[in-house]
Structure formats: structure tokens, C-alpha cells
Specification:
Layout (H helix, E strand, L loop, with lengths): L1 E2 L1 H14 L4 H16 L10 H9 L10 E6 L2 E5 L5 H19 L1 E9 L6 H9 L2 E7 L20 E8 L2 E7 L6 H10 L8 E2 L5 E2 L2 H6 L1 E2 L5 H17 L20 E9 L6 H17 L14 H13 L1 E2 L2 H13 L6 H17 L1
Parallel strand pairs: 3-4
Antiparallel strand pairs: 1-12, 2-3, 4-11, 5-6, 5-11, 6-7, 8-9, 8-10
């Protein structure tokens, strides 16, 4: 089922407004969620709307988001997220880091006491759009054991970095420090599909392809001890150093148990402090050309850059519509009904968009 990005953005904004989110915050959160959907990362998309609504209703997420600057000195900013919307806190942190980088060459912001921030590329691309290199990371609820362990201790603790490239494309890496984001395990549970071997262990520390058993067990770190090491330092900087929760203390956003206590790090580097931006883009373009023309393995016909597949999906979704899982679609319909919104708005839009796309293909 597909729906136009514009209509899905409108629906998300309406839902957020109905649960008390101010217009500017709602637009930012909706933009983050829709960008994830368009880039083919539905685990960080509109499936979060029911959870956001549930947390606000239960008093576990504060809106409006009240950000407090704890300290602002030199190239650094320390922010308290006020247990508000994570996207609002992370975007503010990156904007402050960019402003600092304009003045000092680099800028870094740490955020404590916030919530799930969604797609990290959303923030690093903010810096790339300003001609800067952007870095963002955050910690999350325990789902991955230390290397050699069997107990969930660290979160998937994602990491993203982006660099300004061609006018319509910036190179961006956005990855979890586990082999796969836990959202993909949850999606496999919803879709009743097995997971590939090598993604997770069950509660007894044994490899499993059962997503339900994986949810009771632990994810595996990417690159074995290397991924564990990355998760450790993301947790140390975004969580421990920011004064937020870390390791076992971080709570899941997916169940309304308590405030999550997520910590965030946002960093911006001004390219022009090292070379003119045009020179950087030219060198990067030549570097990319060399990569694309390098010898390919086996039947490989094309070498992709980090974030290139997602960027192509985003362009496709802009013209053909955004794919929505049936379960997510039903959850949004239920939420619309609970909030007294037009419950048929989503399904009507989705069917229309699907018919349009199929007609174009014929």
C-alpha cells in the first residue's frame, strides 16, 4: 500500500497536533518520520506515532518540549531535553553545533534527558546542507550484549556521519552498532517472518532465526568486538558524559514504562577551515568517481556510496508514494479513530496513490 509523502506528512502532523504537540514541533517530527519512510527505513517512521501519542497521554513524554541550556561555552553546548520529543532536542543540538562551527570551526552539543530521536541521517544531513561534516550518535535501551556476553546491556547505539557532496546528493552513513537495528526484529515479529542467521541470539545465548526469541535475547554487534567497542563509546559520550542515562538504565520507547533518558551527541565540522568548500566537493567528486570505476567483484554491476541507495529510494518515494506496512496502516487508523480524526483519510489516500502508480506502470 502506498500513500503520497505529502499526504502522509499531513496525517502525521494532524495526529501530533491532536495529542498536544505544538505546530512547529509537530512539523519537525513529521518531517523526520516521513524522511525515514521515504528512505526505506520504516522502522524509524510513522509506526512511532501511536507510541508518541501513548507516552504523551500517559505523562511519560512532555510537550511542548522544554529545552534548557545547561552550559554554553566556546565550541560546546550542553542541553537538557526536558523529557520531550527527541527529534526536537536532536535538531536543536545540531543547529547549535552548526552555529558553533561557523564561529570556532567545530561545534559539539550533548543532550541529556530526551527520547527516541529517529533517523540520525536527518540531523547529519542538516550539517551537510550547510557545507559541513555532521556527526550524530545516541544511546538506546539495552538490546545488545557486550562481546562474549548473553545479557542485553548496550543499546543498538546508532551512529551517523554525512559530508557535503554534489548539490543534490551528500554522502551519509547511518548505522546501528548492532548487525541490525532492533526495529527490524520488531518488524519481522509483526510480519511473522524469520530473521537471517547472524542477527541475534536467544535468551540462552544461542543463535536464532526466530524474531520472537531474538526479542527475548540479544542482538549481535556489527563486526563482533568492533561493534561492541563502538557501542561502548557511543554510550559513554552520548549517555554517561551528557549526564543522561546509560547502559542498563536507558528505558525502551516501545513500552510505556518510564521516561527513556536517551542521550545524544551532535557534532559539526566547518570544511572551509581546512579548504575551500568547492575544492572539497571537487576532490570528493573525483574520489567518488574513482570508487565507481574501480574493479567490481563477481556479478556486481554498480558500486554504491554510503546513503546512495536510501537517497534513490527517497527520490522514488517522492514521485511514486511511500510504502506502508498493513499493520502500521491499521495502527494509524485506530489512532485516528481514538483521536476523533477522519479514520478513512489514510486508506482513501493510500488506495488512490496505489492506483495512480499502477496506472502509470501500465
Amino acid at each position: 500500500m502506498k500513500i503520497s509523502a505529502e499526504e502522509l506528512r499531513s496525517i502525521a502532523t494532524s495526529i501530533l497536533a491532536e495529542v498536544g504537540v505544538p505546530r512547529d514541533e509537530g512539523q519537525l517530527v513529521a518531517e523526520s518520520l516521513i524522511k525515514a519512510e521515504m528512505r526505506g527505513i520504516p522502522t524509524h517512521g510513522v509506526n512511532f506515532l501511536p507510541m508518541i501519542a501513548q507516552r504523551i497521554k500517559g505523562g511519560l513524554l512532555e510537550v511542548p518540549t522544554k529545552l534548557t541550556v545547561i552550559s554554553d561555552e566556546g565550541s560546546t553546548t550542553h542541553i537538557d531535553g526536558g523529557n520531550g520529543l527527541g527529534q526536537v532536542a536532536a535538531a536543536d543540538a545540531m543547529r547549535k553545533a552548526i552555529d558553533k562551527a561557523h564561529t570556532y570551526g567545530t561545534g559539539v552539543s550533548l543532550v541529556r534527558n530526551t527520547n527516541h530521536i529517529g533517523l540520525l541521517a536527518f540531523y547529519t544531513l542538516m550539517a551537510a546542507d550547510e557545507g559541513m561534516i555532521g556527526v550524530c550518535s545516541c544511546n538506546s535501551a539495552p538490546s545488545m550484549a557486550p562481546w562474549g556476553g548473553a545479557e542485553p546491556f548496550f543499546g543498538t547505539n546508532p551512529f551517523s556521519i554525512a559530508a557535503p557532496g554534489e548539490p543534490d546528493f551528500s554522502v551519509v552513513l547511518d548505522m546501528s552498532t548492532s548487525v541490525v537495528a532492533r526495529g527490524k526484529i520488531r518488524r519481522a515479529v509483526r510480519m511473522k517472518q524469520p530473521i537471517p542467521a547472524g542477527w541475534a541470539l536467544d535468551a540462552h545465548g544461542e543463535p536464532t532465526e526466530d524474531p520472537g526469541a531474538a526479542m527475548e535475547g540479544t542482538l549481535l554487534p556489527v563486526g563482533g568486538p568492533k561493534g561492541y567497542g563502538m557501542a561502548f563509546f557511543v554510550d559513554l559520550i552520548a549517555g554517561l558524559l551528557s549526564g543522561s542515562k546509560f547502559s542498563r538504565a536507558v528505558s525502551t520507547f516501545h513500552r510505556p514504562l518510564s521516561p527513556t533518558g536517551v542521550g545524544v551527541m551532535a557534532l559539526a565540522i566547518d570544511v572551509t577551515r581546512f579548504m575551500p568548500l568547492d575544492s572539497f566537493r571537487r576532490l570528493l567528486g573525483e574520489h567518488i568517481g574513482s570508487i565507481r570505476s574501480s574493479e567490481k567483484a563477481g556479478s556486481t554491476s554498480r558500486i554504491y556510496l554510503p546513503g546512495e541507495i536510501e537517497a534513490e529510494r527517497e527520490k522514488c518515494a517522492a514521485s511514486e508514494g511511500v510504502e506502508i506496512d498493513p499493520e502500521v496502516h491499521q495502527a494509524l487508523q485506530r489512532l485516528q479513530k481514538e483521536l476523533g480524526l477522519e479514520a478513512d483519510q489514510l486508506i482513501t489516500s493510500a488506495q488512490t496513490q496505489t492506483g495512480k502508480v499502477e496506472g502509470e506502470k501500465k
